[in-house]
């Protein structure tokens, strides 16, 4: 019996020794070096050692950013979330990009030109562009990446964003299962994206140095047989879906190529050195980046708990962290932290949607009454604690197409009563109970309870709260049949063009408008005019009229524009803040950022 | 013993089938699917959704999806893709390209299995259990031996804290104390190769189990201490040390071992709280987020791993019983 006990105790001790032995074994290697592009893999990979990767010990300041969530996928043609895009924007660059004022400026392409009727867009790439490994980057690479985005086999979540490329929709929506190889190839060939050399001949391969022209055929409205202009496409093609990941590396890495830093050979300002899931992403400057070489490394961390990230920031373990509403009061009362808070407009508009298929919101006066009866200012101060700005229109401040003069449907209880009097119900008391459906997170419960109380108090309506699990909520709001009576949604800009705010969303043929049963012929005509007019100023006037009509329909109760809010250490200088920042401030122009190491304690 | 083991292991098969069946029905009865994303994002368009559903076989009837998951199915090229029976836990719909077994068991570039998500969780879980046992059992024993003294009350106080304080509160408290104030450790671990960064997650993860172990051990000891055979042992002149170690502790361990098995299974499959707070790269987060994301294969995979681990832990507990109490026979 004693021997059995001894065996048991010995096994326990042995197990603890083995396990503790596991750990020191791991203590020696330096994690950064393990995944360097060149380490141990040279014989298999086409890439060569990069100068930056060869000098990992160089004294370089590190910008430490807490990005929040680890990305689900880091593939230019399959990614869709900001934390994914944040990685891609460091490693790659598109034909064009945005500047600090959200203007579209040259990226890998030094210039672009539309033909007379804006049905063709010609990019000219910079001469001598190189990938971070020193290999040539020519127009053929962009041809590949754009086609890969459209390819139904890729099935990227943002594939539809390049639908205004002529031939794209036919190939992307092809019934792949019932078409032959030849038929599919014909559809692919029908997509008008062609890489040409300087003499106008099709490029032969990825090594051709004078392959600098990319011609893209456009169609502003693929639903009609006529070719329509699409004068906004130079901005669309700045998006991550066109980033030129290398075909041969994608093939070599297979389905999981994007998980490995060695296959992410890009043309952006940084080289990814380490991708350690949930622990960190480490980036070093790309010495071959055409615009210059950043003077610092970037380290992304992935702490999702904002309270911990805030503590770590105070402990000088991060240089940049998102600032959340829960910490705002502490930050504002702290003399140091309050100076480090950066709060500036974001790229989203949030609104209450009213189901126009069902009573009582099938009547415009009822919708108007609720729009008048909703206090946005109080929502921002009481619920968002100031992290947001009330709005009465769709396109947010800072974006082309913003309407600063919109004042209709502001909070006014008298007008609310007048509006409801015009409806068939006559007064708020006669309305049926209103069911307010929302994504049932703990935070949302407080918010919507507040709103229900406001509507009850201000309008005297009976509001039934209907919290739904977040994914189920998304599913409900994606289907016209299951659309709730009143619900809360938002839209964030993909790119700063009114076409993205209006036509993509509110055109009666768009997926969004169809979901909500929204159709307005007059608006459709104006948006189409905006989409197809070449003169930038004239375009804006059409979109402006369309937006005014949208407000007039009282289809939704515009509520707030979000704000981007971060804490940034004072030694991080030169950040260009834009509403379109993806995951961290400054990603629009990382070259402008410097780190003053003398200030770091 | 051999026959018993084989019989118990064979029982795993119906267990897996039942668990997978129930999980499959439950997850598919929740509205929404893997392509229903955050409401502020541009949703996957209908056509892409159709392509993705076809690619992953989500357009097929549910019974066929289940058979495909468990046994396998022919893919578009007419090639048979073996399912769970071959150890294939299915494709992730979120981390596209990766299979569930790759996500959970594949280490990052240039590292070994211990650096996979399961490897990390396993290490932390075992450390947490060792912490719980190393502190919990002696604490329980001492509290029982010194019943109704200050030592007992202090021990009970700590145990009550361990059971009643949620671990995210304790995590934040310990972070503020040890990292922000005393600066003994970093809040954000730069490298999980350093021993010190494991201390806080281990203590926080193991604290609840430690408290439960101590409480159970104390109760069990108090019961055993009043047994006739203890009186007999003392009356025949055995040294107090021998009475406590050989007669009391050993006999008190049975209920403790009963909870330690499932506790180990729970600890090694990761903790959502620890992982979100420390950026710990384990598998607990995968389980929780997969449910919200409707990443069906991940839900199935993590549930089945958990079920198998629980079954194996219970089997180990039964085997340990036979060591602790010779009256228990396994055959």
From TrEMBL, chain A:
GO biological process per UniProt: peptide transport
GO cellular component entries: ATP-binding cassette (ABC) transporter complex; cell envelope; periplasmic space
Ranges for domain Solute-binding protein family: 104-509
Superkingdom of the source species: Bacteria
Localization in the cell: Cell envelope
Keyword terms of this UniProt record: Signal, Transport
Entries under SUPFAM superfamilies matching the protein: Periplasmic binding protein-like II (SSF53850)
Pfam family, one: SBP_bac_5
GO molecular function: peptide transmembrane transporter activity
Cleaved signal peptide residues: 1-21
Record PROSITE patterns: PROKAR_LIPOPROTEIN
Recorded family membership: Belongs to the bacterial solute-binding protein 5 family.
Name this polypeptide is given: Solute-binding protein family 5 domain-containing protein
UniProtKB/TrEMBL annotation, chain B:
PROSITE patterns: ABC_TM1
Domain ABC transmembrane type-1: 118-321
A GO cellular component entry from the record: plasma membrane
Transmembrane regions listed in the UniProt entry: 9-27, 124-145, 157-178, 198-217, 253-274, 304-324
Keyword field contains Transmembrane: yes
A Pfam family that the UniProt record links to this protein: BPD_transp_1
Signal peptide: none
Keywords, alphabetical: Cell membrane, Membrane, Transmembrane, Transmembrane helix, Transport
Membrane topology: Multi-pass membrane protein
Biological process per Gene Ontology, one example term: transmembrane transport
Family (UniProt): Belongs to the binding-protein-dependent transport system permease family.
Protein name: ABC transmembrane type-1 domain-containing protein
